[in-house]
Design goal:
Layout: H1 2-9, H2 11-40, H3 43-64, H4 67-80, H5 84-120, H6 124-127, H7 129-151, H8 155-179, H9 185-210, H10 215-227
Helix pairs in contact: 2-8, 3-5, 3-7, 4-5, 4-7, 5-7, 7-8, 7-9, 8-9
């Protein structure tokens, strides 16, 4: 029984449980999104939404350039050595790199967007270009957050901020569906953009406040010094 209790209380078990919960909740929220979007959008605009989201996701994948996977190793190494300042510098440098890469990907998309719209007849890609580029950046930054929290072994926060934007998006869609109103493509894509952006803002604020080397730990250190 003691061995079983140690396993349940181990960081390895908790980490695995959070990862599994994250995966299951991601599937559940994905199903909820499809069900709600089917009620809110006509078939043609539903297909357009998935094209917009897929285009933004592809751009975000190029923008993040695998950094979201690599960052786990570097942060965990610095944290293990107690080098919290260096870990913060890794976060800042990778964030700047992702923003710069997304800017380049966005410029390429703007260059070919008109050509693609003319050749394929998908005019909404041209109309939704600003939203798609902004969504690329938001999604790429959102991809960073799980790796950062995983590097700090904050698996609970990793699961939370992986799904936060989906919770916000599904919540708005659920309210709209309850009101019985059918919305246009622009409303849904804008809602996705702002949900993702808010999730990113909350996660980065949490990093600055709660992680080691952040505002919270500095305040605790000052209290200990004053108490001494």
């Amino acid at each position: 029984m003691k061995l079983f209790g140690k396993i349940l209380n181990s960081r390895f078990f908790r980490g695995g449980a959070f990862v599994s919960l994250n995966t299951v909740s991601g599937v559940a929220f994905g199903f909820a999104q499809i069900a709600l979007l089917g009620r809110l959008l006509p078939p043609a605009e539903l297909g357009a939404f998935f094209i917009v989201r897929s285009t933004a996701s592809l751009g975000a994948a190029f923008g993040s350039f695998g950094i979201n996977q690599m960052i786990v190793r570097y942060i965990s190494e610095h944290v293990a050595r107690g080098e919290h300042g260096d870990a913060k510098r890794v976060i800042r440098s990778t964030t700047v790199t992702v923003v710069a890469m997304c800017f380049l990907v966005g410029m390429v998309f703007l260059t070919v967007n008109g050509f693609l719209a003319d050749k394929t007849g998908v005019e909404f890609l041209h109309d939704q270009a600003p939203t798609i580029i902004a969504l690329m950046l938001a999604m790429a930054l959102e991809m960073l957050t799980p790796g950062i929290f995983r590097g700090y072994k904050e698996f609970g926060r990793m699961a939370l901020y992986t799904q936060l934007s989906r919770v916000l998006f599904v919540g708005v869609l659920a309210v709209a569906a309850a009101m019985g109103v059918k919305y246009e493509l622009k409303f849904v894509t804008d809602t996705l953009l702002w949900s993702t952006a808010l999730g990113v803002v909350f996660s980065f604020v949490d990093m600055q406040v709660r992680l080691p080397g952040g505002v919270h730990s500095i305040c605790l250190s000052m209290r200990c010094v004053n108490a001494a």
